Amino acid sequence: MVDLLGRAGQLEKAREFIEKMPIKPDCSVWGSLLGACRIHPDAKITELAATSLFELDPQNSGRYILLSNIYTSLGKIEEAHSIRVLMRKRGVKKIAGYTVIELNNKLYKFLVGDCSNPQSDLIYRELERLMDRIKEAGYVPNTNFALHDVEEETQVKSLYMHSEKLAIVFGLINTRPESTIRVHKNLRVCGDCHTATKFISKVTKRKIVMRDSHRFHHFSDGECSCGDYW
Asked: Are 177 and 206 in contact (CB under 8 A)?
């Protein structure tokens, strides 16, 4: 019910539902509410859900990162930075994000800004061309998911080097035009990569399946099966 209300943007009703529950809400309940705040930002309810999660699961780095990203989307850069500081004080380690793609029974792993692949030069050249193509189709980089202590141009470039994009481009280079690209992200896919992948599926006319830590995303012709809620 919390998830359904959250999807509909009824955050206040979701909060009231939680307060009236005959059982004590657990991490999954508060996590659903916090996830809804990512799509429908509400500072007050975001803080309520995050505070409850920090008490129940204080070492889960994903909760801190999500809260920091929500603050950033609301323009609260100082609050977002304070969450990162809180992580360090509590000794919470951010799990390194990576994306894996399997080709010819071999796994290829990409980190952000990865240059370890033998085809790295080709990957980055093709990535630059692909970013130009999706920009022409309407893609606008969301720098809320980039570093915030650098210039905007650097922020955009850092977005381009996310592991999801590198793995997808690697797949585009090394698979047949009619084949489906399948990648696996160990964390929740970031909002900018999700948007970019929708545009990539449209301009390349390729189906892309991405499994992140929350669900499968099936991208086709500029749309995703999750309906932009994950």
From this structure: yes
55, 61, 62, 64: CA torsion to nearest 10: 60
Tell me, yes or no, if the pTM score tops 0.90. Answer: no
pLDDT digits (tens, 9 = 90+) for 68-104: 888 887 888 899 899 989 999 999 988 889 999 999 9
**Total count of residues recorded for the chain:** 230
Residue 27's pLDDT is what? Answer: 94
Here the tokens at position 26 are 């657990």
Take residue 70 and report the two structure tokens written for it: 């929500």
Cα(188)–Cα(194) distance, rounded to whole angstroms? 10
212 phi, psi to nearest 5 deg? -110, -165
